[in-house]
Specification:
The complex is a heterodimer.
Chain A (H helix, E strand, L loop, with lengths): L4 E5 L10 H8 L5 E7 L6 H5 L6 H18 L3 E8 L3 H18 L4 E5 L5 H10 L2 E3 L8 H6 E7 L3 H8 L4 E4 L6 H9 L4 H11 L14 E6 L2 E6 L8 H7 L9 E4 L2 E4 L4 E4 L5 E4 L2 E4 L4 E20 L2 H5 L1 H18 L7 E8 L19 E9 L3 H17 L20 E17 L9 E5 L1
Parallel strand pairs in A: 1-2, 2-3, 3-7, 4-7
Antiparallel strand pairs in A: 1-8, 4-19, 5-18, 6-15, 8-9, 9-13, 10-11, 11-14, 12-13, 15-17, 15-18, 16-17
Chain B lengths: L3 H4 L2 E6 L4 E7 L3 H10 L4 H8 L7 E5 L4 E7 L19 H4 L6
Antiparallel strand pairs in B: 1-2, 2-4, 3-4
The chains are: A alpha+beta, B alpha+beta.
């Protein structure tokens, strides 16, 4: 039998959960590495900005404990990338401290590596001067001002820092922001198997059982050999089919055939998908094209202001029939009355989202003529300076949504139904993506320092 | 008249990073995919029109192995910015559902 490495991913994200039976079924097949992806940029800029985890600490702890016991019992490494959802310093620190606590409570002992991904601003500025940072997705060039304004910037590491940590004997490897497949590609590289199936395996494993049907947050078992990858969900209620695997190449990527990663590009255009059983699929024909220059993506966010929101709805057909006029009147009243208490219109943004009309698609909504019997509203104010201004302007907007008169009005006690008391919610600081660039590296590990400890 | 909602097995949208939206239409089998592809209806111009973006901003890729068509285009507003309606970008597929495929 040719050389192979067996990899077990427990779920799509650390904290999404997985059935214990799925973990056990995976362990019964003697994986060489267990792991899970820890996060994603998909939930938006809040988590990177606030430093808070995307999944709850309770949910993360549950998954971590089961995985740690599995790794120690089986004497295999456990790898987790993008810890805590966004992979910044506070996110990594949270998961590191949880691992220490669980180990202490349960009497587990191992060598742990924590790989940092949060970036030093002065170092990034030096790289801007050196001309080694460029923009992605039509973003403006990175400047010192953008770096200074950023709340937090992370670099998205490739496999090399994981390889360093595993080579150093770490059994538990926790990383900040990482390319989702990177920890798996690292394990495959260390097994002296080629990068193409390694990256492909990582693309499947980073989402747990998502490449299987029915989709769900569950475990995926992948075997990598010299020229192919085999995927099988460990839960017998799920199965991988050639089509379910092929479709996963579409997931969250701009191209289904060209997947750009640190150090190269995974080309899946000539992949073959063959069923090896009714639940397992063999994928072959993937190619890895090494890049001339090694690059890592940078992600950063900056503070956009402070938000307050209010939810309400109307069942009044006269109001619904002249909604745009009504909303214009409300905006005018808010502007006048906020100015009267000293808040200039430049100090905030007022949004009135209309659910039942274009709340989901905004300006891209093609159906513009429907007259529904009721409409839902989310009123929001983002104030640039502080929460107090956001809440004050929102209060004025809510009052005027409730009481502003309109021609033909019969509902003279109030225009809006409010589901809650209090009706207004202080959301707190709001962030926006401000850095989406790539940095050229001489050494793939140079932005990602590793701390080791014996637990 | 065959609408995408009746002919496709999957019609979905999702973020491809914070600044782009990616839309997939997947068919059941090679034969349906081939017939849909032959109509030429699914093309960059269709996505440009439905999503109100210049055609040159649409990255359109038929993916034969998955019986799928993928189009990636700029988001209206970056994920989570003021005015964004869909942080995950997963509810932007509906304009495609009623596209007629003469197959």
């Amino acid at each position: 039998m040719s050389k192979e490495i067996r990899l077990l991913s427990t779920s799509a994200i650390l904290g999404y959960g997985f059935p214990e039976a799925s973990l056990k079924a995976g362990l019964d097949r003697d994986p060489h590495v267990i792991g899970v992806d820890g996060g994603s940029v998909d939930p938006g800029p809040h988590y990177l900005g606030s430093g808070k985890p995307f999944c709850s600490p309770m949910a993360i702890r549950r998954d971590l404990r089961l995985m740690l016991h599995a790794a120690i019992d089986k004497k295999i490494p456990m790898v987790i990338g993008t810890c805590g959802g966004a992979g910044g310093a506070p996110h990594l620190a949270l998961v590191v401290s949880m691992v220490r606590e669980i180990a202490r409570e349960d009497g587990l002992h191992f060598k742990m590596a924590a790989i940092h991904a949060e970036q030093d601003k002065a170092e990034l500025k030096r790289r801007v001067v050196a001309g080694t940072i460029s923009s992605l997705a039509h973003q403006p060039p990175l400047t010192d001002a953008t770096i200074d304004r950023a709340t937090r910037i992370v670099g998205m590491m490739g496999p090399e820092p994981f390889i360093t940590a595993l080579d150093a004997g770490a059994q538990v490897v926790l990383a900040g922001r990482a390319s989702d497949p990177a920890p798996w590609a690292a394990a495959v590289t260390r097994a002296q198997l080629p990068p193409a199936p390694g990256w492909y395996a990582g693309k499947m494993l980073e989402c747990g059982a998502t490449p299987a049907i029915p989709k769900g947050h569950d475990s995926l078992f992948v075997t990598v050999r010299d020229d192919h990858v085999e995927c099988e969900p460990t839960n017998p209620a799920r199965r991988c089919t050639p089509l379910s695997i092929a479709n996963h190449s579409l997931h969250e990527n701009s191209s289904p055939i060209h997947h750009i990663e640190p150090g190269g590009m995974l080309d899946t255009s000539d992949c073959r998908f063959d069923a090896v059983s009714d639940r397992a699929v063999r994928i072959s024909g993937m190619r890895w094209n090494p890049a001339d220059q090694y690059t890592v993506k940078l992600e950063g966010v900056e503070l956009a202001g402070y938000r307050a929101i209010c939810v309400c709805g109307t069942r009044d057909p006269m109001l619904i029939g002249r909604l745009d006029h009504f909303l214009d009147s409300v905006r005018g009243e808010v502007s006048t009355k906020a100015s009267a208490f000293g808040v200039d219109p430049d100090a905030y943004q007022l949004g009135i989202r209309v659910y039942g009309r274009d709340g989901v698609m905004g300006a891209r909504e093609p159906c513009r003529d429907a007259l529904p019997h009721e409409l839902g509203f989310v009123i929001e104010v983002v104030a640039h300076d502080n929460q107090e201004i956001a809440s004050a302007v929102l209060g004025m907007a809510r009052t005027n949504m409730l009481h502003t008169d309109f021609p033909g009005r019969l509902c003279r006690e109030g225009n809006m139904a409010f589901p809650f008391s209090p009706s207004d919610i202080e959301v707190g600081p709001v962030y926006r993506f401000s850095v989406f660039h790539v940095a050229e590296l001489d050494d793939p590990t140079e932005l990602f320092p590793i701390e080791y400890e014996t637990v | 008249m065959t609408l995408i909602r009746d002919a496709a097995r999957v019609c979905k949208s999702k973020n491809a990073g914070p600044f782009e939206l990616t839309i997939d239409v997947v068919f059941d089998d090679a034969e349906t995919f081939r017939r849909v592809k032959a109509t030429g209806v699914l093309c960059p111009a269709l996505f440009a029109r439905l999503y109100n973006v210049p055609e040159e901003h649409v990255l359109f890729t038929p993916y034969d192995a998955a019986f799928a068509f993928k189009a990636t285009l700029p988001r209206l507003v970056p994920s989570g910015d003021f005015g964004d309606t869909d942080v995950y970008g997963c509810q932007q597929h509906a304009p495609l559902l009623d596209v007629d495929l003469p197959i």
